[in-house]
Write a structure and sequence with these properties.
Layout lengths: L1 E5 L9 E5 L4 E5 H4 L7 H11 L18 E5 H7 L6 H13 L2 E6 L5 E5 L1 E7 L3 E6 L4 H4 L7 E5 H5 L4 H11 L6 E5 H8 L10 H19 L2 E10 L2 E11 L5 H20 L4 H11 L1 H15 L6 H11 L1 H16 L5 H12 L3 H19 L6 E2 L3 E2 L1
Antiparallel strand pairs: 1-2, 1-4, 3-9, 4-8, 5-6, 5-13, 5-14, 7-8, 10-12, 11-12
Helix pairs in contact: 2-4, 7-9, 10-11, 10-12, 11-12, 12-13, 14-16, 15-16
Length: 391
């Protein structure tokens, strides 16, 4: 892919090749990632094509665009994107008509002020040159000036591989928490972020799971450089949230792969040894991963192993409902009440307790390390949010 821009004072019909981008990366301020979605897959990819033409100002960056430039996606690339010369025009026109009507609504939570503006200043198709994309100047703080904001870095190629808008949005939302490697989203938030109407899948959680979570995650795992492992969180008998874990396949060494296989075999062996059917053990492992299963097995056997009448059934239920996760949530509340903030002396003392295997100390230190990570890749800025891209 090439980067073409039109200098402000030049003929707009004469795009100038500036540089070649071999592995384009796009950046968005976090409130933009957490928008209420009403983009189709095709519209999202056009939006991303526009983002690939932007060089934002990032911490310590030497080269960046001062303003939005008019970028041109060459004709051949656009036609290839739409599947060929015979079908592209009508689909392109519909997508452009829809995109040019999209706008952003921003609300300040502190004083209830709000503002709305279009996303694009212009979208223009000229078969002799290509698709010209120019973002509205008011998008500047969310796409260009990111040096002092929390933002999300996304490899364009990963999005381009996906055909499901749900898969695209789930991957975006997980990549927002890439450094933490996990995030939990309520069903309500998922509906908002994925653009699912309130009446859709109403009282049909099975269909919601399959079409919104399970099939999109399978596509992500098969087509991208990431694996996503998920489990459902319940309040009573109702599914109220989904916990996602993100694994970068490129960061997994051969030794780690072999170690994971070894851990997987050990988990299956433990489950089968405790009476769980081997097919069920493999199903649990495939869906939840070895670490998650091992944590729940260890927790249940330590706490209930000597008293549980049906240990096999108890282990299966514990993994499916994440008993260890529930325990950890309760533990988190307790440790934060005891150590709401930490100074150097606290950390030193906790390190000593950690060496002795103190569970509460270990968990508080884990939370402390996550707090440090969150400062650099945190969620939405406190003052603003994007409830939706308006149409």
């Amino acid at each position: 892919m090439h980067r073409y821009v039109i200098p402000k004072d030049s003929n707009p019909n004469e795009p100038v090749k500036v540089e070649e981008i071999l592995s384009p990366v796009v950046y968005q301020a976090n409130p933009l990632v957490e928008r209420k979605n009403n983009f189709s897959t095709l519209e999202t990819k056009l939006f991303y094509l526009g983002l690939t033409q932007i060089r934002p100002k990032l911490p310590h960056s030497k080269y960046y665009d001062e303003d939005f430039l008019r970028a041109v996606i060459p004709t051949k690339e656009v036609i290839d994107m739409f599947g060929g010369n015979n079908v592209y025009y009508n689909e392109l026109r519909k997508a452009v008509e829809s995109l040019v009507g999209k706008s952003v609504f921003i609300k300040n939570n502190k004083n209830e002020n709000f503002v709305a503006f279009p996303i694009f200043a212009m979208l223009k198709w000229d078969k002799s040159t290509g698709l010209t994309i120019e973002f509205n100047k008011y998008m500047y703080p969310f796409l260009l000036d990111l040096a002092n904001k929390s933002y999300t870095r996304i490899e364009f190629e990963q999005i381009w591989k996906l055909s499901s808008i749900y898969a695209i949005r789930i991957l975006e939302l997980c990549l927002q928490y890439r450094q933490l490697g996990e995030r939990t989203l309520t069903i309500e938030d998922l509906r908002k972020y994925l653009g699912i109407a309130p009446e859709a899948y109403k009282d049909r959680i099975g269909n919601f799971k399959k079409n919104v979570i399970e099939l999109p995650v399978i596509e992500i795992n098969e087509k991208t450089d990431f694996n996503i492992i998920y489990d459902y969180k319940k309040t009573g008998r109702s599914v109220t949230a989904v916990h996602f874990r993100l694994i970068d396949k490129n960061k997994i060494s051969n030794d780690e792969i072999e170690n994971e296989k070894k851990n997987a075999r050990a988990v299956v062996s433990d489950l089968v040894g405790d009476g769980v059917d081997k097919a069920m053990a493999n199903t649990l492992l495939k869906k939840y991963g070895s670490i998650y299963c091992a944590e729940n097995v260890k927790y249940v056997k330590k706490k209930y192993g000597k008293t549980a009448k049906n240990l096999a059934g108890y282990l299966v239920k514990a993994i499916q409902e994440d008993y260890y996760g529930q325990h950890k949530k309760k533990l988190d509340k307790e440790v934060m009440e005891i150590w709401p903030t930490l100074d150097d002396e606290d950390i030193k003392a906790l390190r000593q307790m950690e060496k002795k295997g103190d569970e509460m100390a270990c968990r508080r230190l884990e939370l402390y390390e996550k707090e440090l990570d969150k400062k650099y890749s945190g969620p939405t800025d406190d003052d603003y949010y994007f409830p939706y891209f308006n149409e």
